Structure formats: C-alpha cells, structure tokens
From TrEMBL:
Protein name (database record): Actin patches distal protein 1
InterPro entries: Aim32/Apd1-like, Thioredoxin-like_sf
Alphabetized PANTHER family for the sequence: ACTIN PATCHES DISTAL PROTEIN 1 (PTHR31902)
Pfam families, sorted: Suc_Fer-like
GO annotations of cellular component type: cytosol
Length: 302
C-alpha cells in the first residue's frame, strides 16, 4: 500500500495499524482481478491523488428509501411533499435524540418494495418503506404523516435492543397498526452511487460496477434479485449522491453478522471480485489505500 500515514492521537501511525484498531483485517490479497476485462470509459477523470482515509464523516444510522429508480432530481430528497423529503427532514433533526447513534445518513435507492409498482400512494410517494442499516430492519407501509412518530419509536427500540443485547425485535406497534416491521435476511448490502444528474462519473461507473458484481455473485450463489428474499444473500443497489464523486466508484458495504460498514473509493471493475471475496465473503478484509471509512457496530442477531 505504500507509506500512507496520518497524525492520530498525537502520534504518527501507519494506516494498517488504524485498520486493525477498528476491528478489521488488512487483506493480503491483491485488490485487482487480472481476468476482469470491463473498463470505465477513458473520457472520465477521477481524483487519484487525494487522501482517502477518513475522507467522509462517521455516522451511526443509514436510512435507505426505496424508489425503484436509478437517478433522481439534483436534490434527491428535496422534493416538497414527498415521503423521502419527510424522512430526510426527520434524519436531519434527530441525531441529537439518539446520542448512541450520532449522525444519521438518509439516501434514496433503486431498491423496490413489493407495493411500489402497484400502489398509487407509493408511486406518488405518499407512503413508503425504509431500510434501517446497520440494523438490517425494514419499516414498511409508513405514511408521510407517520414518518416522525414511527421512526422515533422504532429507532428508540433498536437502540435499546442493541444496548441490552436483546436478540429479538419489536415487530408491531399498537399505535401504528398499518406499519409492518420486518427483519432483513440478507447477509450484506452493497450500494453504488448512480446519481447521474449530480455527476456523470457516478451515472456511468455505477451500472458497470453493478453488472460485474451481479455476475460474480450469481457464480457464488449469493445474488438476490428484486423480490428474492432467500436468506443469506447479497443485494446490490444504486443510491443517490453520498459525497465524493471525484473518488468514483464509491462502494458502501454493510455486513450483517459482524456489524461492519465499509466505504471504499477509487474502485474499478477489476476490483469487484476481490471486494466480494475479501470484504463480503471473508467478512471485512480491506485494502487501506481504498478506504474512505470503516466502522464496526455492535451486531444484533435477530
């Protein structure tokens, strides 16, 4: 990896050591696959020199709003009167409510819910679902008016469950009889930024990365398409702008069993198979030179 270093706690430490301190392992395998042939268009330019380590801020909760789309308005969560707007506003105002969580990230995604294609209210974004990571919990059939009280209640319950090491989740709330709580059965989620209306690089690179990853996950029997909830799979999806287009492709990974969150950057198609093998199958082995952020949360076995 070279001699990347950073001043930390008054001492100069090699990033390999920082990776180990955070509960991760440094991969001894190459980050590149020699047999992979896909490439990004040569017309795209990226920042290959900027310092990546901790180039994005830590967060404790990632709320993913399914839309079934692969691109969104410039401000993806900023359209007045929509479900995603209300969720985003809740996230912006709620970090202080849950000090155990800290910062809250809200994104929209290409993920779909079962009702999204048939229910007019979902299509008009009057109702919706959210996936809460790293908890691997779905909150479904929430109206715009219910967003604040439902998320207040569910997130508080999840925080309490983690704190008390409870191995079950509250699946219903009498005050919200229409809302459904479901535990997600996948072993991992992988997200690529595909927000073309914000930056062409992500709109071009994300589909190439996802295609490569889907092919390899199929070979391993881990691929899960829309509607396939067979336990133990890996779901790959697009999300909106998350910061750092110049570092494309950004890859955000959540591992259920270990509670690990990995954010890699400057990834290319020839990195896909090693990412699957090392980061997902081998549960969090990483390459320090590609890390923007790594976090390890207390895992919960629902």
């Amino acid at each position: 990896m070279g001699l990347l270093q950073k001043i930390f706690h008054g001492q100069t430490k090699n990033i390999d050591s920082l990776v180990l301190e955070k509960g991760f392992e440094v991969s001894s395998c190459s980050s590149e696959c020699s047999s992979c042939t896909s490439n990004f268009p040569k017309s795209l330019s990226f920042d290959n020199d900027a310092y990546l380590w901790e180039s994005t801020k830590p967060y404790g909760l990632h709320i993913v709003v399914p839309t079934g789309k692969t691109d969104w308005p410039h401000d993806a969560c900023g359209v007045s009167g929509t479900f995603s707007k209300q969720v985003s506003e809740w996230g912006g105002h709620s970090s202080g409510k849950f000090p155990e969580i800290g910062s809250i990230k809200v994104t929209v995604s290409s993920l779909s819910s079962d009702d999204l294609l048939t229910n007019d209210e979902y299509c008009n974004e009057k109702r919706g679902d959210v996936l809460l990571l790293p908890f691997f919990v779905w909150v479904r059939n929430v109206s715009i008016a219910q967003v604040n009280p439902v998320l207040d209640a569910v997130v508080a319950s999840l925080v309490a469950s983690r704190k008390n090491s409870v191995k079950e989740i509250q699946l219903s709330y009498p005050q919200f009889p229409s809302v459904k709580i479901e535990v997600d059965s996948n072993q991992s989620y992988v997200f690529f930024c595909s927000h073309k209306s914000r930056d062409k690089r992500c709109g071009v690179t994300a589909p190439i990365m996802k295609k490569e990853m889907d092919i390899y996950l199929r070979d391993l029997g881990l691929y899960r398409d829309v509607g396939d909830n067979t336990p133990g799979g890996v779901k790959v999806a697009f999300i909106n702008h998350i910061g750092g287009h110049k570092y494309a492709a950004n890859v955000i990974i959540y591992l259920r069993k270990s509670g690990k969150n990995i954010w890699l950057a400057r990834c290319k198609p020839n990195n896909v198979r090693p990412i699957v093998d090392e980061c997902i199958v081998n549960d969090g082995k990483v390459w320090p030179e590609k890390i923007r952020l790594i976090q390890k949360f207390d895992s919960i076995e629902w």
